Amino acid sequence: MSGRISDSTVRRLSLYLRMLRDLERVGAEFVSSSQLAEPSGATSAQVRKDLSHFGSFGKRGRGYSVAGLVRALEKILGLSRSWRIALVGVGKIGSALLGYGGLAARGFDVVAAFDVDDAKIGTRAHGLRIHPMTELRPVIAESGAEIGVVATPTEVAAEIAAELERAGVGAILNFAPIELSEVNGVPIRTVDIVLELEGLSYLMSEAGRRTGSDA
Amino acid sequence: MSGRISDSTVRRLSLYLRMLRDLERVGAEFVSSSQLAEPSGATSAQVRKDLSHFGSFGKRGRGYSVAGLVRALEKILGLSRSWRIALVGVGKIGSALLGYGGLAARGFDVVAAFDVDDAKIGTRAHGLRIHPMTELRPVIAESGAEIGVVATPTEVAAEIAAELERAGVGAILNFAPIELSEVNGVPIRTVDIVLELEGLSYLMSEAGRRTGSDA
DNA sequence: CTTGGTTTGTGAAACCTTTCACAAGGGCGG
DNA sequence: CCGCCCTTGTGAAAGGTTTCACAAACCAAG
After folding, report:
1. Residues 90-129 of B with CB under 8 A from A
2. Measured between CB atoms, does A8 come within 8 Å of chain B?
3. Same domain, yes or no, for A94 and A184?
4. Which structural domain range is residue A111 located in?
């Protein structure tokens, strides 16, 4: 088992865990790979293969123990602890994140916020003091944030990501529409809404072209 | 050329287009596949392969005409026109989207907004009147929105997506942390921040486990 | 204890994507 | 006009992911 695990596998593991927690809440004891596969649109074989990279968690003829698999997946995904987030850029997206209770509920706590805007610095947003950029390093060190979130304009995103990395974060989530390259093994995930919309635009145009030429 | 194009290819095409527009702005005339590859982290061969699915756009020995390729990619991706968006849920994320100028700048106009909250209905957010959910169908029909955005709580996301589909949108962008399944060929893309964070959590834990056992 | 029904874990096969490597074509300097 | 250098377009190879299919294991009932 366990070589290099693909992003898509990890993504699915998260989805399985979500479903398992729901099942746990309603008191289910066992679940089969096919039940587990359904919500993520995967197949039962894929569920079993995904899990097999990490060990053997099921009972043949019976399925998986819900509680047991929840704990196993939490351990694999690093979700048996909570993570601290440092947010850079308290604009539209940054504020939305701060106000989104879903993060803290799932173990991701925003513990520090930064902005360049003098009007914002020193004020509080959702109970969190907004620091100037110059305090990035010390505040991140003191707060112990492990994840940096870049919610700044595109032009400065790369620079901010580099500063976050230097300040010691272990991973970065980027909302600016720019592809940031991983440095020093600090993984970066980008959430690019425009890219998603353009992907949809392609699919709609493609559909139009198909039906257009058929009709 | 042109069979079924993978999501990752389309994603890269968007990135190429971004770079090409920057190049056009600074007045570059030609660009090579290797220059084009750099910002998206692709290889030159991949750029050429991606483009080859749609035709032959370059000149051997010279590269690609920047202006020509911009127009070609815009056509392929369906970006030579603008798209209208109907937004359902004007909470944190919904408001952030409304206020985000980057969308309109790239040809995605939010033309209609809906919410269940009586306090919001009838008011205006960023110049846009907020409609009650009961008016979904007529307002979408009248506004001609092609893309529906789901920015509601998870519990109602699936139902809203179905209503949007019935109201006639051609694609859906979903921000709720739930996997929605495509119906009637209406493509759905989900932006799931928690999933991204959990992916980062996995990578950080993995890194910890590796160095932990090595040291 | 045995039988039958069920579900896992996993090699092998199928499928898909990326990379390689090179012939074909184009431009430029002389 | 010729020869050299450069870059595309593309089959073939390599690499990766998903699906298939089945033996092994477990439970329950008789």
Report:
1. 92-93, 95-97, 99-100, 102-103, 106, 108
2. no
3. yes
4. 83-194
For residues A99 and A187, state if they share a domain: yes
The CA distance from B24 to A169, in Å, is: 36
- Interval B37-73: pLDDT, tens: 999 999 999 999 999 999 999 999 999 999 999 999 9
Concatenated DSSP letters for B93-132?
HHHHHHH-HHHHHTTEEEEEEEES-TTTTTSEETTEEEEE
- Based on the domain organization, do A185 and A128 belong to the same domain? yes
pTM of the model: 0.96
Contact B195 A15 (CB under 8 A): yes
pLDDT tens by residue, B79-93: 999 999 999 999 999
Provide the pLDDT for residue B63. Answer: 97
Instruction: Express each pLDDT in B142-169 by its tens digit.
Output: 999 999 999 999 999 999 999 999 999 9
Nearest CB among B10, B189, B200 relative to A147 is that of B200
Cβ contact, residue pair A202, B13, below 8 Å:
yes
Cβ atoms of residues A77 and A17 within 8 Å:
yes
Domain with B23 in it: what CATH number?
1.10.10.10
